[in-house]
Amino acid sequence: MVFTINYLSIANDSGSTPEGMALIADTHGNTWFYMMFAADVLVGVFCLQLLYTFKVLVTLASIETPPAISLPLNTDNRKASDVLGINERQQYVTSSMRGTIKHLRTQAGFFSAWRGYCASFVYYFATGSVANILHSFLGTSLPASLVIGVLSILFFARFSLAVTHIIISRPQPTWWFKRVLATPWSSARQTLPAMAHFALAQWASYKLLAIASSGESSLPIRVSMFLLSFVVNLFVVLPLWVVLVRVQASLLPDTEEAIVSFDRTFGKEVTGALSFKEAARSFKCKGWQRIMMLVGKMVVIIASIAAVMALARFAFLSFFIRDAALQ
């Protein structure tokens, strides 16, 4: 969930002014400065791990379908469902964040909430590096930025497909790098339409956020661009990412078993890769409700952490400003 990391960084940077840091260093030496810096690093690392866990949860929620044994809980099937122990609210493992993490740890160990982390890190580093290299040749104009933003993602379609398969499948003895190399380009090519849609939407959200972060625009424009970027991420980027995940999941090899229950056909009469339209139409209203509930919980948790950090920083700086004034 890259867009959340951007918002978090803005909220975190808003309180760490150079003047405040200089005051702490000048008043009490470097000790308190290093303590605050270390606290920022630790909180930043914690938030990155938390955001990646959210990515794993949303990825699994994007593909999960109820087990075949589940029944519609109407009047006719009420007694049968009671005998089988089926609860409508418990059909989806991913309907609960805590339940999903518990399921992952049962199936794949304690660190399963960060499954695919190393591969994802290398993927994002590679796409960013390629984008920077292309910018050095093509410049930073708007058309060049658009082309680079899309090409840098499409270039690593094979890598992205492998990362998704690592996240949604049960643990494999094969190292992630070998799984990337073993992913056929013929499969990755079928994800290009979905990846192109996602890349365009993500580029637009980045540009809006860049305007919001720049000091050249007036405050009302910056706030408007920030809110518009959030809306684009929530209602355009996120749905397109879910569609991309479903297209990639439909290409999971038959030799690999998913870590959550999901229908490989996604409701189609024949197996095979989903098209962009098929993936979008196959995700029903209840699925979107689960995704939005997960995102809502994520926003509340991240906002709470940002608020606590801002209050702690404000109290910290206020204490030392007052102490410096007394001296």
Automatic annotation (TrEMBL):
GO terms for cellular component: membrane. InterPro entries: MCP_dom_sf. The chain crosses the membrane at residues 31-52, 146-168, 223-244, 298-321. It is found in: Membrane. The keyword Transmembrane helix applies. Keywords: Membrane, Mitochondrion, Mitochondrion inner membrane, Transmembrane, Transmembrane helix. Coiled coil: none annotated. This is Uncharacterized protein. It comes from Morchella conica CCBAS932.
